[in-house]
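Retro notes, item 3 of 5
We never archived the inputs for the zinc ion complex last cycle. Fixing that now. Sequence and ligand:
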Amino acid sequence: MTMAPTDAERLLALLREPCCPICILARRAAREYLETRLLRLSTGASQGPKALYEQDPPMVSGAVLCSRHWHKLVALEARHPEVPRLSEAMLETLLETADDPRICLACGVQQSTTRRYLEVLARLPAETVGLALRQGQGFICLKHLAALPASPLKGWLLERVHALTLDLPRFQERYARWHSTEFGPEAELDPPGRALAALAGED
Ligand SMILES: [Zn+2]
Ligand SMILES: [Zn+2]
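Structure as it came back at the time:
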């Protein structure tokens, strides 16, 4: 029986890829959240926003997604034509509660995952992280570096980002290749622009 990887193992594995593991793990968690919510509705869902509301009250009544996660949900829906449109049900609720500001549920998942992995990173032995850095192409983005306490590890991580900026075209090319394998084609940003956004810290 294979054991599921621990948080530390997940983080170290991604540190070998040309990405910020914390950004990627948080984005994955938000995507899985949207996907799980959406696909749950595909089993025995009857049509119509009202039926969706009854099947998934937290998602619909809690119901706000920021524009970024809204677009991701709509893109997921396009890939699953068999599932009733959750976005329509949400839109209906949103229009009814327009004056009631709430936090985006997917952003909430992304933020709590970010906090969790920042803690994991801060607790890892510096030598272990240093080894992963030497063996791979990963980095910690500027946004997440800013959240780390000062330490020798933080110094190494800053050096890594600096080294990547010295040959940006090479990094942009590597990042684009890796990103399309991980997330498939995404139309939000051109690949070179996305690579720069990744160094700064992606949402
Ligand atoms: Zn990051
Ligand atoms: Zn959001």
